[in-house]
């Protein structure tokens, strides 16, 4: 059938190619679904809040929504990379906490120490990312266990050394990264979008990005194609930890001091994974993108904002978030299953 | 300058592209290769044949840098080389087309072709160059039916193979290893591959061609090397070798006949399974009777609906309309589970993906269906004993039934899958490409088993892309085309009869 059908089509396909590129690019975009869901959530949320006598999209709630999205988003953007590579990072919550402390304690309220503090945070993050990456890629420990172990190690250090906020963030950083806005949009949110854009670009236009998707899609294929899987994975873990470090600097600016429990209390580890998966990425790796993650983050932040305005019980909030995540993943699974069926039907 | 260049071209002609001397390789204590010599000239197709376990794959993996040899030397293009990774071998100009494709279904053709060596422009991946060069390579191999932006997962097997070959060419491969390149192809696609191989040959590319299909070996190669148990038995020019000689070298014995005798007419019994007007999204108007004691062959091109038919009967992708009767009683088989309980077994064509649980033991694999469908079936100890008997009966060669099945050869894996189904004493067996990628010896063992099952009263439906196998095994052949049965042929049909129905050439002027 293949031959008989394709035979009459054997015209030079070259002129048609640009058109196909556009169509496949749009059709293959995994982020579409989550943005549709985001739009729906915004509409429904706005209606529900309006019925309750409030307004979802007033200035102050938009600002706080975007701040919630910034912290989670920075972490999730990095998480996207490791998940794409078929790994994951459960230590990010502790890296965030540690980073707030390193930043605030190094600055100790002095503007002149911003640069060394930022550099130190990034260095610490790189080191943790390296450990994660080496454990996963070189030693070959399951990513779940390896990063959980590293996370627990950091947890021990944090709980032993701190029982409350410590250090003091430089005032300039608090004013800019913490609170400065362009209209309703916090500067920090723009930083998040910048990071996301950089990752998006890296995935599409660098060898690293292409290799990462290959490693996540099928490690054997990648290796036999000459990709150095271990380097790609280690780099991804380093970048993921770096993103968590940035989130730490942002939170230190927001809170004015180091907070040893902020990462854990915000559930950044699991929420970041949830945001990535909501964005259409496969937990097994090889499929997804950072655009989807941005959608997933905004969706979670919107749900958060709606429930805050309705003053819903925190417990119920968690239940609804759980339902949303499960529903989304079930939907993706169904869609994939159907596509798989169509495909396996084909080769007879 | 000019003289020097002409000298080098002259010596290029004499010098083999690849020269292996005394290659030895052992895994743990098992010596897989023992002092193997091999040489390949530019533009030559050199076939490497041997039974599974003869050491062909290991030899190819040594050449392509996956394993280092324990002993011996490899010279490529006149210089001694010792590759420590596939990457090194690739950049030296050695490409390998694997039996299982090394492609990412989620990525585009171009992304797959240039994986690992994406063209850069100012440090960034140059997508335009990637698409352009992929299009050029596709044109160069005469493939114009899909664009470089197509997602590989949406292409059929034959086209995926073209992508594999193009992927190797993108690296300027001067030596191409093809490991069972036709294992997944239907007959007419094999023709296209032949043309492709010849085109590569004209470009001076040396090809090591590993195949179980001896017809191809004779059609394509100029020399043949036979491996057996890690030794080189012989290397001979193809023109001076006969088919029988080759088989004798491979198995070390004469194969008396390839196919067991067909069923005598009085052995064929009642209709076990009948389908009337069966249809689903891939099939339409299926009318089929399957009788006890017969082997019904199903022919057809890739995509004609052969597997869809088997999967529909087995309930894996059930009929959505029409009527199915088992022993005259109407049944509804909506899931594989219900089909298994009704006494139907299905050996999938995708052994690696759907047939075996690669990381589990031989025993666990053999017990899989029985445990799942009949939990209390015969008690644990008794059923293990029974499975062991069956494994012995089908002659599985493994280091023990606790060995992980992925370490077995394809033929032995298939026998384990067969034992799994036989343990349920099915009355209807659906075989989908039962001997794909299996060596000559194991192949005739499987043929014998299939025939024996039919003789014992089972109704057998067998799908095969290999026409000689289909013609040799079947008591009756139905030919599929475009999702329906195009016609039925008797046991003594010819390949031309089958192809006529399969391609629609019997309908006058349809082309």
From TrEMBL, chain A:
Keyword Transmembrane present in the record's keywords: the answer is: yes
Instruction: Locate the transmembrane regions by residue number.
Output: 31-51, 119-145, 185-203, 232-252, 315-333
Query: Where is it predominantly found?
Result: membrane
The UniProt keywords, alphabetically, are: Cell membrane, Membrane, Transmembrane, Transmembrane helix
Please state where this protein is localized. Cell membrane
Endpoints of the signal sequence: none
Query: Looking at the keywords, is Transmembrane present?
Result: yes
Q: How does it sit in the membrane?
A: Multi-pass membrane protein
Which PANTHER family has this protein been placed in?
ABC TRANSPORTER PERMEASE PROTEIN YPHD-RELATED-RELATED, RIBOSE IMPORT PERMEASE PROTEIN RBSC
Name of the molecule in the record: ABC transporter permease
Query: Source species, please?
Result: Plantactinospora mayteni
UniProtKB/TrEMBL annotation, chain B:
The organism's superkingdom is given as Bacteria
Identify the residues that the record assigns to the ABC transporter domain, covering every copy: 18-254, 266-507
SMART domains, per the entry: AAA
Q: What Gene3D superfamilies does this protein's entry cite?
A: P-loop containing nucleotide triphosphate hydrolases
Q: Which UniProt keywords apply?
A: ATP-binding, Nucleotide-binding, Repeat, Transport
PANTHER family with a match to the protein in the record: CARBOHYDRATE TRANSPORT ATP-BINDING PROTEIN MG119-RELATED, GALACTOFURANOSE TRANSPORTER ATP-BINDING PROTEIN YTFR
**This protein's name:** Ribose import ATP-binding protein RbsA 2
Q: Which organism is it from?
A: Plantactinospora mayteni
